[in-house]
Amino acid sequence: MSKRQLQVGIIQSSMSDSPIDNLDKAIEGINGLAKRGAECIVLPELFLTKYFCQSEDTKFFNLSEEVPGKTTKIFEKIAKDNDISIVLSLFEKVKTGLYFNTVAFISSDGYQGKYRKTHIPDDPNFYEKFYFAPGDLGINCYETKGFNIAPLICWDQWFPEAARIGALKGANILIYPTAIGWHPNEKATHGEKQFLAWQTIQRSHAIANGCYVVVANRVGHENFAGDGIEFWGQSFAVNPYGEIIAKAGPKQDEHLLCEINLDVIEEFRHGWPFFRDRRVDLYSDIAKLHLD
Fold it and tell me: Within 232-290, where are the H helices?
């Protein structure tokens, strides 16, 4: 009988000024979740460092690395030793002047490939366009233990087109390593509705595509510019009905475990066959930047 459940681990973490300490913390978290039964584990966006994109400073390009490279090799051994897969978010250097915000997918058989962030934000304290080129590899799935995973990254989570493509390519799970939070001076007036919008759009991706969505956010206050960013944590996972099946708090490091069940996906898609009823003959306008 084919495997019907997959245990997915989510690491929600604060980051220190030391990449070595952040690496050690991630390894400890992965090993702990593997002992609890996790078979696929996702880390927050750019987990090796604090979120440097709060300012535009060329010194931060020194944090980049090749993918695959030194960090993926470390996690290849961890994945093999624990018989797990890992969704690993890294600052990728292709050559001087060309960098990407990249996820490496690593299984127990080693490095399987990468996804480069498609949508790049440029907002106050989120100056990613200074550092990262738009992804050029498209959206793809990676297989682990009979399940298909489509990795996306943070700002991608606001775009239904990205989620749909992942699902159409066979994803059972959309996974979003994330670094998102409040500007402290906006929290009182906008904080609750900003968070609810973020959670709601991702729950809607699960419903519209009949799949699971898994989100790993960082947590804590980091200050590179102005008042910094208060990362809101609250990493979560939802099933195809949009029900939250695992959720972390807003204040501290947490390691979550959730179950992905193919029977739930099949039940949902049989009852609500959105893929059957799509009208692709009418959707060509979606590929235009604007409609006059």
Answer: 262-271
CATH classification code of 5-287:
3.60.110.10
Task: Answer for the pair 233, 218: CB distance below 8 angstroms, yes or no.
Answer: yes
Q: pLDDT, tens digit, for every residue of 90-115?
A: 999 999 999 999 999 999 999 999 99
Tell me which of 141, 154, 211, 258 is the catalytic residue.
154
Choice among 45, 76, 222, 230 that is catalytic: 45
Task: Examine the residue annotation and report whether 117 is marked as an active-site residue of this protein.
Answer: yes
Give the total residue count for the chain.
292
Report whether 4 contacts 261 (CB < 8 A): yes
Integer Cα distance of 236 and 215 in angstroms:
5
pLDDT tens-digit map of 114-152: 999 999 999 999 999 999 999 999 999 999 999 999 999
Catalytic residue among 117, 211, 222, 230: 117
Q: For the chain, which residues make up each domain, given as ranges?
A: 5-287
pLDDT tops 90 at residue 227: no
3-class secondary structure, 154: helix
| Sign of CA pseudo-dihedral 281, 286, 288, 292 | positive
What number of H helices and E strands is found in the chain?
5, 17
Element housing 200 (H / E): helix 187-209
- For helices 160-168 and 187-209, angle between their N-to-C axes, nearest 10 degrees: 30
- Give the pLDDT mean for 156-177: 98
